[in-house]
Design brief:
By secondary structure, the protein is an alpha+beta fold. It has one domain: Alpha-Beta Plaits, CATH 3.30.70.141. About 40% of the residues lie in helices and about 15% in strands. The protein is built from 7 helices and 4 strands; from the N terminus they run E-H-H-E-H-H-E-H-H-E-H. It has a 4-stranded antiparallel β-sheet with strand order 2-3-1-4. The longest helix has 11 residues. It starts with a strand and ends in a 7-residue tail after the last helix.
């Protein structure tokens, strides 16, 4: 996969709150092109694998329960410097610390229910993209 891409999920809280359209609009306005998109629901096993890096953290089981609590919207986004620019667009993990105008500041309620995921490296963007999408679903 090209390295000018990142992976995102609109998390169950933001889907439940009706923010899919507003968040996708923000993503487009910031210059990202959507090259893969789907609404899906993660199984418990999916969420445990996706967040395996956090398996020893005290919030792991709560995070897994949250991520399987409803549908998510997964997407692959293309833009020069995609990973870094998208992390800036979504803001800090805790919306209380996120800068004004960021997606988490606008749409998130708590450090766990924080509306959106963004890959933290080109390598993870690729791993996470192939976790959710088949090659024929990437454009
Ligand atoms: P991110 O890269 O900004 O998404 O943050 P991390 O990789 O550190 O954490 C992954 C996800 O776990 C976050 O997006 C939150 O949904 C959740 N999370 C992170 N820190 C905490 C915490 O202290 N408590 C709880 N309950 N969830 C957390």
């Amino acid at each position: 996969m090209k390295t000018n891409r990142t992976f995102t999920m609109i998390k169950p809280d933001a889907v439940e709150n009706g923010y899919i359209g507003a968040i996708l609009a923000k993503i487009n306005e910031a210059g990202f092109k959507i090259v893969a998109l789907k609404m899906t629901q993660m199984s418990k096993r999916d969420a445990q694998l996706f967040y395996a890096v956090h398996a020893q953290r005290p919030f792991f089981s709560s995070l897994v329960d949250f991520m399987v609590s409803g549908p998510i919207v997964a997407a692959i986004l293309e833009k020069e410097n995609a990973v870094e620019d998208f992390r800036k667009l979504i803001g800090a993990t805790n919306p209380a610390d996120a800068e004004d105008g960021t997606i988490r500041k606008l749409f998130a309620a708590s450090i766990q229910n924080n509306a959106i995921h963004g890959s933290d490296s080109d390598e993870n963007a690729m791993i996470e993209s192939y976790f959710h999408f088949a090659t024929r679903e990437m454009f």
